[in-house]
Design goal:
This protein is α/β, with parallel strands linked by helices. The chain has five helices and nine strands.
């Protein structure tokens, strides 16, 4: 991210720059990490149904939409951030993208009307929300069989223990960020 703008790095919207809200704690996933993540997801992202919890800047959801996801649902609790996400989706003409104004944990406890193939979990670093979010995803019906779950945390923290039926596929560290991809059974 440079100059308060997010650059989409691949796919249909490659090179497009989108405004990012000036919000305390908002930290878009960096280009290098997104490039690695979407290289991991390349065989499965096209046509996938994606859930971007704690959407923030929308970096992960917009990237998934750009790379051909059939559906991207972005969940964000801050109203001012939701407005920017909606404006950016409209700016791109991303019809497969829907922004939901809700608290992620409360939303996950609501009615489960679909399953997702890919879930992005990048909560605010100091929030302690990664573990409870994984637990809710594992207990409820949101995950398609063999769904992929991306997790992002501060580099100095260990990733939380994954639910018993999940398998850690890949993990890396870049700068101040630890990130991983798990598969839910």
């Amino acid at each position: 991210m440079a100059d308060g703008r997010l650059r989409i790095i691949g796919g249909l919207y490659r090179g497009r720059r989108l405004p990012v809200p000036a919000q305390p704690g908002l930290r878009p996933t960096g280009d290098r990490i997104r490039e690695t993540l979407f290289n991991w997801l390349a065989p499965v992202v096209e046509g996938a149904h994606c859930l971007d919890l704690f959407a923030g800047s929308g970096a992960l959801g917009f990237e998934a939409a750009s790379r051909g996801a059939a559906e991207v649902v972005m969940v964000e609790r801050t109203a001012s951030v939701v407005r920017i996400l909606e404006a950016n989706a409209k700016r791109l003409g991303a019809l497969a993208l829907r922004v939901v104004h809700a608290d992620a944990l409360q939303w996950l406890q609501g009615p489960c009307d679909r399953t997702f193939d890919i879930v992005f979990l990048d909560p605010p670093f100091a929030s302690g929300l990664l573990r409870p979010t994984c637990d809710l995803l594992a207990r409820h019906c949101w995950l398609a069989p063999r769904a992929l779950v991306y997790l992002e945390a501060p580099a100095q923290d260990e990733l939380p223990a994954l639910p018993g039926t999940w398998e850690l596929l890949r993990h890396k560290r870049a700068g101040q960020v630890r990130y991983a991809l798990a598969m839910a059974a």
